[in-house]
Amino acid sequence: MKIEDVKKIAVVGAGIMGSQIAENLSRLGKYNVCMLDKDDQLVRKGLQSIEFRLERYFVSKGKLTEREKQETMARITVATEIEKSVADADVVIEAIVENLGLKKEIFKKLDEHAPGGAMIASNTSLQNISEMASATKRPDKVVGIHFFNPVAMMRLVEVVKGVRTSGETLSLACDLARKLGKEPVVCRDSSYGFLANRAYIAMVNEAAQMVWERVASPAEIDKALMLGMNLPEGPLRVWDVTGGWPILVASEQDAIRELGPEKGRLNPIVRLMARSGYTRIYDFWEDVLSKW
Question: Which residues belong to the active site?
Answer without folding.
Answer: 125, 146, 158, 197
